[in-house]
Amino acid sequence: MPTDQEPTAEQIAEVRTTILKKLEAEPPAEPFHPNDLRRLKESDVWITRLLKVYDLDVEKTNTRLWDNLIWRQSFGVNDITDKTLNQEFLNDGSIYAHNKDRDGKPLLIISIKKHSKSRNQEDLLRIIVYWVERLQQESNDKITLFMDMTGSGLGNMDIDFIKAIIGIFETKYPYVPNYILVHELPFLLNAAFKIVKTFLPEEALKILKVTTKKDIDQYVDKDNCLKLWGGNDDYEFKFA
């Protein structure tokens, strides 16, 4: 259960020392990326955010941070650039960042209408990670995941893909989600969405909101809403 309480300097130091000692005693087969090691050694932000997510549980934070370092290395997170991504998926407007929610947090938009199970899931997840990392570098703030279901049908619904997205936010970026907005869920997909909710962690369920054109402005004001969603913004995606 996340806490608003700030960790003590001692707790932060304990996590850092434990990870660095483990690194010395059990070096991973693939060395961790210098950027991640620098972030671990020189800044308290990463450790602080994890400690708060895990309710100041130092042991749990140690485990998750170590797992995160291993994943970041194996997934090549620090080496992902717009040039290394699947260019078709990067440029087709299926996953992109644009505008902010009412809390001022960036929207990471996933257009489910443009998805199909035939698309390579790893390529898509790399684009999601690219955007999360890019947005984190820009503001180091929370992000609202906006799942745009407008016009989607059964052929677009891919429970494994949604599961994988949630998994990335739950285990790799647990401190990042502000809201998970599911917008204009078609009636046909209600049953599938109920299945999705069964594997969502408790914390995700708390920030999950199903919205329609009538109530989206509770979370995203009209000027930050695309016309497609019932807002005033006539933006058309072009990667930049």
Automatic annotation (TrEMBL):
<dbReference type="InterPro" id="IPR053012">
    <property type="entry name" value="ER-organelle_contact"/>
</dbReference>
<dbReference type="InterPro" id="IPR036273">
    <property type="entry name" value="CRAL/TRIO_N_dom_sf"/>
</dbReference>
<dbReference type="InterPro" id="IPR036865">
    <property type="entry name" value="CRAL-TRIO_dom_sf"/>
</dbReference>
<dbReference type="InterPro" id="IPR001251">
    <property type="entry name" value="CRAL-TRIO_dom"/>
</dbReference>
<dbReference type="GO" id="GO:0140284">
    <property type="term" value="C:endoplasmic reticulum-endosome membrane contact site"/>
</dbReference>
<protein>
    <submittedName>
        <fullName>Uncharacterized protein, isoform A</fullName>
    </submittedName>
</protein>
<dbReference type="GO" id="GO:0012505">
    <property type="term" value="C:endomembrane system"/>
</dbReference>
<dbReference type="Pfam" id="PF00650">
    <property type="entry name" value="CRAL_TRIO"/>
</dbReference>
<feature type="domain" description="CRAL-TRIO">
    <location>
        <begin position="77"/>
        <end position="237"/>
    </location>
</feature>
